[in-house]
Amino acid sequence: MYKKLLLSKSTSRGFSTQIQTAKTNLKNWKSVVGLEVHAQLLTDSKLFSGSSNEFGAPLNSAVSHFDASIPGTLPVLNRKCVEIGVKTAIALGCRVNEVSMFDRKHYFYADLPVGYQITQQRAALANDGELTFPVIVPGKKTYYKKARLLQLQLEQDSGKSLHDEELKRSLVDLNRAGAPLIELVFAPDLETGEEAASLVKELILILKSLRSCSCKMEEGALRVDANISIHRSGEPFGVRTEVKNIGSVRSISQAITFEIQRQFEVKLNGGVITNETRSWDATTRSTVPMRDKEVLQDYRFMPEPNLPPLRLNTSATDTSCSDIISVASISRGIPELPEDTRSNLIKKYQLSQDVAVILVNEAKLLQYFISIMEHVPGIPAKLVTNFLINDLLTFCNKRNVDIEDCQLSYIHLEDILSALHAGTINLQAGRELIEIIHENPSQKVQTLIKDHNLEQITDEKMIEQFCRQAIEQHEQAVKQYQSGKKKALFAIVGEVSKLSKQKANMKMVVAFLEKILKSE
Amino acid sequence: MKRHLQLSIKQLSGFYADGSISPRTVVDHSLDDAIKLKRLNAFIRLSPEKALHQAKESDHRYENKEQLGVLDGVPIAIKDNFCTKELTTTCASRMLSNFVPPFNATVCERLANAGAVLIGKTNMDQFAMGSGTVDSIFGPSKNIWSNDLVDKWHIAGGSSGGSATAVAAGICYAAIGSDTGGSTRNPAAYCGVVGLKPTYGLISRHGLIPLVNSMDVPGIFARNVGDCLDVLNAIAGPDDRDSTTIRKPFRKIDMSFNEELDLRNVRIGIPKEYHCEGLSNEVLETWMKVADLLEDSGAHVHQVSLPNTSASIFVYSILNQCEVASNMARYDGIEYGHRAEIESSTEELYANTRAEGFNTVVKTRILTGNYFLLRKNYHKYFEKALRVRRLISEDFKRVFETPKNDENIVDVLLTPTTLTDAPLYNDFVSQSNRDQCAVQDFCTQPANMAGIPAISIPIRLSKRGLPIGLQLMSKSLNEEMLLRVAGWIEQQVEFDCLANEQIYAARS
């Protein structure tokens, strides 16, 4: 149930309902998936210049002389970018290198004004990390997977080209040129699209909690490329293809699943898989070869002569040196990471793993949960998680509202759950309250319960009356129930609910029905 | 004859201060002289309006006794590969023929802040790729010491030949060049002026349009060592905009006690590898004479060995071409500079822009550099070249700091700057750019490979009446010692860098 809800989220933040596992399964064949992730760093200014690093600024308004490649300008490394890079590397369990270096990677493109990208090819900021993350597949038990992080490097983003097909013109926006990126190169340790999507989902949680990256894939703040191959088990890896232009977390799973399937089909038909770059087309839901990437590029890497080697203080004890960034002191500032939060939740509230995963995946939901648990004494955690996940999240999905934009305040939810816990209202009334408050968030819960007449009916006489009425109307169900078909009771319970306009205390109804039907 | 012509910068500013002459007058004369000596082709562009405005401001400062220092009101010139705000900066190439920088290079800014008056931008080889100032879209610069400026004239040397000429012809008191493999020292030697290549990282490269980032250094031309030091003191020191500048604050060098230099405490090295093929007898003789002069005056003069010298020029050539290939990638006609009139595709636009904008020398280096950087060649050429570069660096470190068993440690190396006096233009251009540079840069580029300071000072005239210079090198950041020894030699040889007929003929 939870899984399905989580996966049905329609925004880029969630997974997809359309997850399909590769349909054709060649016997004894395995798929191998590796990811390369580019994350734009959340900084005020760019990696090597002082111009603004804000998304959505007017075209070509955040461009310094350096970003526009004016001759004579030189790169000056932004300390903040290094600090964020180091923080992220530590959180991902990397070895942060005492000395790293910058290189030039050459290629001609209109949105790359200088003709090369400054990156870290030979000696990166950090290496050898790993990421362990929960994998959620509908109908399967949630499991944990581990992917090695081979390299984490700092590099520049390029500008953006816009092509006007009618006027046959290309226009260039350099606002993004020189924006700070970290590239994360993961080992090909994954097997499926779902695993890849789960890895990215976990990575997003980590980067957000570190404030490293906004992770807004729709703004291009986080970009994922996938390397995919298939091979017969026991044999070396097959020829891989690279899939680019994956624009959302949902697409990650779809694109990789499609590409694995495509490769299986090529093999089935006796074809050969070629090393190529393919692009994910979200409308046709398929990967297509990228024409301009057909020619094998030689990037002619060269050390960047204008930047001295980047030195960090990697000593665990001496963090005093003022000028050099201390890895140890950055490491002390790292907040609780998602996996810690999950295990703390499980320990403290006896939540199931799946529930913990869902709460941690939705920051707002987790905040609601914590605030309710703190402010409503004695409330069972299960009541709260059930309501938040089954009712609140369902409401949001139905309305296509991001949970972050949900209008209910912490107080609202505390009051609703308090009323539920006390038995003042029933679950149905709770659901109604969500809808009412979302439209009109200024009202108090207590007032709304009164105004909308939502109090639960607990009067035994009234309940008896509703029950007797329902029994009369459902002779068939009564017979079935009494002959041992326990499920038949639901029809009668449903009728009572209808008769009471969904206000009867269902626990009392069930108890009463069971009692009188047994005795009759 | 203008009386002020023979003054040093300190004397000139002294005269400004006591009112015997005004910056405005001297700048007027400079601009006049620049026009009268136009046939030397020292300048690509004069900036008279700006210069006169600066001169007027300087006048006011002196009147109010608020002068900014010894450079206030002193006419200078700057090579056309330093960005000057709102003043076209071409690198002597078609590619940048319309490029107007939106900012000032740090060097230009610091000179302006010191009150120096910019007369104009000087001629050079296209993108500083050359050693003759013959490959400029504005035509070659001519050596003022040539007897015949019409048919049989000599090259000024390069690539900063325009700056050297502007100083040698008495138009300016000092000029800024750049030095990647000898581009300041070579024309200084040919034109009979002082040319200083400071320690790599001592002067900011911000705003210097790069040739080879890891070797480029702004260079200084002056008529004497003292003037050279005055300019150095104004422009040296860390700059946040150039991450390769040395971060230690620069302490201004004071040479007022120059006379007291006791040569008995100075150890001079004569590296035997610089006695090379093609070295003219006259240069060799000059070199030995000065070595004797130093020894006779008490200096310890030793022969030393820099065994990797002969490999240096080849390695320099590889590293140069690789960085050139990379640095030139930005010239695509999109953001600035020349743009071809073809818009059928971005690739066509790039290809035509670059085909039209660069000369053969630039194109050859781009192609060769890209070849060296190919994945399959990187280890064989670029990486190996870096290793040899380190060996060359270690050669210098050994003689300056950590000699082996029986070797002598030295403070300063004395070598030729060039192998001969200035060649005739016709002889010079009969060779390819590669061959020209291989000969011209032989003695100068090792200092760039190692990042150490070097200076060329004029010693005497050759039989043909052309200047011969010698080079001094020292360890990193040892400019003070370098300049002290240079100053001592200067006093002994009494070379008059304005003692040639052309200077006066043109002005009369």
UniProtKB/TrEMBL annotation, chain A:
Catalytic reaction list: L-glutamyl-tRNA(Gln) + L-glutamine + ATP + H2O = L-glutaminyl-tRNA(Gln) + L-glutamate + ADP + phosphate + H(+); L-aspartyl-tRNA(Asn) + L-glutamine + ATP + H2O = L-asparaginyl-tRNA(Asn) + L-glutamate + ADP + phosphate + 2 H(+)
Predominant localisation class: mitochondrion
Keyword field contains ATP-binding: yes
GO molecular function: ATP binding; glutaminyl-tRNA synthase (glutamine-hydrolyzing) activity; transferase activity
GO biological process, one term: glutaminyl-tRNAGln biosynthesis via transamidation
Pfam family, one: GatB_N
InterPro entries: Asn/Gln-tRNA_amidoTrfase_suB/E, Asn/Gln-tRNA_Trfase_suB/E_cat, Asn/Gln_amidotransferase, Asn/Gln_tRNA_amidoTrase-B-like, GatB, GatB_C_1, GatB_Yqey_C_2, Gln_synth/guanido_kin_cat_dom
Any one Gene Ontology cellular component term annotated for this protein: glutamyl-tRNA(Gln) amidotransferase complex
Subcellular location: Mitochondrion
Record function comment: Allows the formation of correctly charged Asn-tRNA(Asn) or Gln-tRNA(Gln) through the transamidation of misacylated Asp-tRNA(Asn) or Glu-tRNA(Gln) in organisms which lack either or both of asparaginyl-tRNA or glutaminyl-tRNA synthetases. The reaction takes place in the presence of glutamine and ATP through an activated phospho-Asp-tRNA(Asn) or phospho-Glu-tRNA(Gln). Allows the formation of correctly charged Gln-tRNA(Gln) through the transamidation of misacylated Glu-tRNA(Gln) in the mitochondria. The reaction takes place in the presence of glutamine and ATP through an activated gamma-phospho-Glu-tRNA(Gln).
Protein name: Glutamyl-tRNA(Gln) amidotransferase subunit B, mitochondrial
Organism: Bactrocera dorsalis (Oriental fruit fly)
UniProtKB/TrEMBL annotation, chain B:
Enzyme Commission code: 6.3.5.7
Originating organism: Bactrocera dorsalis (Oriental fruit fly)
Lineage: Eukaryota, Metazoa, Ecdysozoa, Arthropoda, Hexapoda
InterPro entries documented for this protein: Amidase, Amidase_dom, AS_sf, GatA
Function statement: Allows the formation of correctly charged Gln-tRNA(Gln) through the transamidation of misacylated Glu-tRNA(Gln) in the mitochondria. The reaction takes place in the presence of glutamine and ATP through an activated gamma-phospho-Glu-tRNA(Gln).
Pfam families: Amidase
Catalytic site: K79, S159, S183
One Gene Ontology term of the molecular function aspect: ATP binding
Gene name, Swiss-Prot/TrEMBL: LOC105232578
PANTHER family, sorted: GLUTAMYL-TRNA(GLN) AMIDOTRANSFERASE SUBUNIT A, MITOCHONDRIAL, TRANSAMIDASE
Catalytic activities: L-glutamyl-tRNA(Gln) + L-glutamine + ATP + H2O = L-glutaminyl-tRNA(Gln) + L-glutamate + ADP + phosphate + H(+)
Family membership: Belongs to the amidase family. GatA subfamily.
Domain Amidase: 32-483
Keyword hit for Protein biosynthesis: yes
Origin superkingdom: Eukaryota
NCBIfam families named among the record's database cross-references: gatA
Self-association and partners: Subunit of the heterotrimeric GatCAB amidotransferase (AdT) complex, composed of A, B and C subunits.
Keyword list, A-Z: ATP-binding, Ligase, Mitochondrion, Nucleotide-binding, Protein biosynthesis
Subcellular compartments: Mitochondrion
Name by which UniProt lists this protein: Glutamyl-tRNA(Gln) amidotransferase subunit A, mitochondrial
